[in-house]
Amino acid sequence: MTIEGIGCRHCATRIRDALLENKAVLGAEADNEEGVVDVLFEQTRLTLDDLADVIASAADHPGRSYRVTW
Hints:
By secondary structure, the chain is an alpha+beta fold. It has 2 helices and 4 strands; from the N terminus they run βαββαβ. Strands 1-4 form a two-stranded antiparallel sheet. Strands 2-3 form a two-stranded antiparallel ribbon. The longest helix is centred in the first third of the chain and has 12 residues, at 9-20. The protein starts with a strand and ends with a strand.
């Protein structure tokens, strides 16, 4: 997935950690330089929209936002 708003390694780590908190996510890697996140997840338990919501909620303050682009 391509993510708008990943500006630094800390952002990438925050997004990865938020995804990995979900038990249906089996693996996640975020790359701030490329602005992408690779996620391995159980498709019977989560949808891409669910993942997008998790990513959006990972922003740590009102001035920051993450948005999945398809």
